[in-house]
């Protein structure tokens, strides 16, 4: 890997889940969680991934972390193809990329002290903090980095608030000095007042340790606050990717336009993630990962859809006149700007 190479590269990533058979005489249904995702993340250019519940965000996170295997496609982290690595080298490579999960209650083992929880990723990195005093010193260091006290290492997770638990989860992710942290809905389970504190902590840590985040959220405000790059997912695909400013000011895909139009008072917001109500102007539901029609997967809900959209799948390609702005829409060059309006329907539910 040389300077300028992406820190994470995802190519043609597909993950289908075969579900239990409903009848002996019918084939098992298949859930199309991811249907060909291409993404690159440049060092220092944190990528936010947004999209409605069920669009495949968590599946993508699990595959990037190699916690699950793809049906097809590949994931490279720091130039290494994760699919080509054996378990041992993968565990060692993971020191460079760690994960923070949504649920700060479920993701920390309630029977372990914070000391053990935070130190656990070091097990896979024998040359780092190899003796007990060095491990303890490293745990104390990361606890301080996330705004907790070193003495907190002798407590159990239940002794902390939700926000503090998410700080513990972040400390655990930091302990191996990773370059990339994948955070799946890291503040969704927290009180609104605590969300901004945790996001500010993430920004501080990024500046201090040179981290690159892949930050997954159904909340556009969260992503906008932290990430200079944004990818919008719809039914297992990336439908738009660009610099955050371009996505928010000049959304090219009708789905992104509808998502943005669903957020009231976007410009009035100040200081981080708010708890504003997000109402979608999208008609109907996303159809779910079971339906895999040909053509554009958004066609059934799209105000612009024409016959072509139901037949021919639009590729993710550059939006005319905008460098680094990609959209998967046949009309991406025509429909920029004015967010769509329409009858309000359906909440964008938490992913
Ligand atoms: N282990 C699994 N088995 C079967 N279906 C799954 C599994 N994981 C995810 N799915 C399905 O894949 C789709 C995407 O899920 P997910 O990645 O969790 O979406 P998101 O995080 O965006 O809400 C959903 O339809 C979900 O039901
Ligand atoms: Mg999810």
UniProtKB/TrEMBL annotation:
Keyword ATP-binding (UniProt): yes
The molecule here is called ABC transporter ATP-binding protein
Work out whether the entry's keyword set contains Nucleotide-binding.
yes
MF terms (GO), sorted A to Z: ATP binding
Domain named ABC transporter is located at: 8-260
Keywords, ordered alphabetically: ATP-binding, Nucleotide-binding, Transport
Q: Where in the cell is it found?
A: Cell inner membrane
PROSITE patterns the record matches: ABC_TRANSPORTER_1, ABC_TRANSPORTER_2
Q: Which residues cross the membrane?
A: none
What's the source species for this entry?
Answer: Marinibaculum pumilum
Instruction: Identify one Pfam family in the record.
Output: oligo_HPY
* Membrane topology field: Peripheral membrane protein
Coiled-coil ranges from the UniProt annotation: none
Family that this chain belongs to? Belongs to the ABC transporter superfamily.
């Amino acid at each position: 890997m040389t300077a300028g190479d992406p820190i994470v590269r995802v190519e043609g990533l597909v993950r289908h889940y075969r579900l239990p058979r409903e009848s002996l005489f019918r084939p098992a249904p298949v859930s199309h969680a991811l249907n060909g995702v291409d993404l690159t993340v440049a060092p220092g250019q944190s990528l936010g991934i947004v999209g409605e519940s069920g669009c495949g965000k968590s599946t993508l996170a699990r595959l990037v972390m190699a916690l699950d295997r793809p049906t097809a496609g590949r994931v490279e982290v720091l130039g290494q193809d994760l699919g080509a690595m054996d378990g041992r080298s993968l565990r060692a490579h993971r020191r460079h990329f760690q994960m923070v999960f949504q649920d700060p209650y479920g993701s920390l083992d309630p029977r372990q002290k914070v000391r053990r929880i935070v130190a656990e990723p070091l097990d896979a990195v024998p040359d780092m903090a190899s003796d007990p005093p060095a491990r303890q010193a490293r745990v104390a260091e990361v606890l301080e980095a996330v705004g907790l006290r070193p003495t907190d290492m002798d407590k159990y997770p239940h002794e902390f608030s939700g926000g503090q638990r998410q700080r513990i989860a972040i400390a655990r992710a930091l302990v191996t000095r990773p370059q990339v942290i994948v955070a799946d809905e890291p503040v969704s389970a927290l009180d609104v007042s605590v969300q901004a504190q945790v996001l500010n902590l993430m920004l501080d840590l990024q500046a201090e340790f040179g981290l690159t985040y892949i930050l997954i959220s159904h909340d556009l405000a969260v992503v906008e606050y932290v990430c200079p790059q944004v990818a919008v997912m719809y039914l297992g695909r990336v439908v738009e990717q660009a610099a955050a400013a371009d996505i928010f000011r000049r959304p090219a895909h009708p789905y992104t336009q509808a998502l943005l139009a669903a957020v009231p008072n976007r410009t009035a917001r100040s200081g981080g993630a708010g708890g504003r109500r997000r109402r979608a102007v999208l008609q109907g539901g996303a159809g779910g990962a079971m339906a895999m029609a040909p053509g554009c997967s958004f066609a059934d809900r799209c105000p612009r859809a024409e016959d072509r959209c139901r037949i021919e799948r639009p590729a993710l390609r550059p939006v005319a006149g905008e460098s680094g702005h990609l959209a998967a829409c046949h009309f991406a060059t025509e429909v920029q700007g004015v967010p769509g309006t329409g009858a309000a329907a359906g909440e964008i539910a938490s992913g």
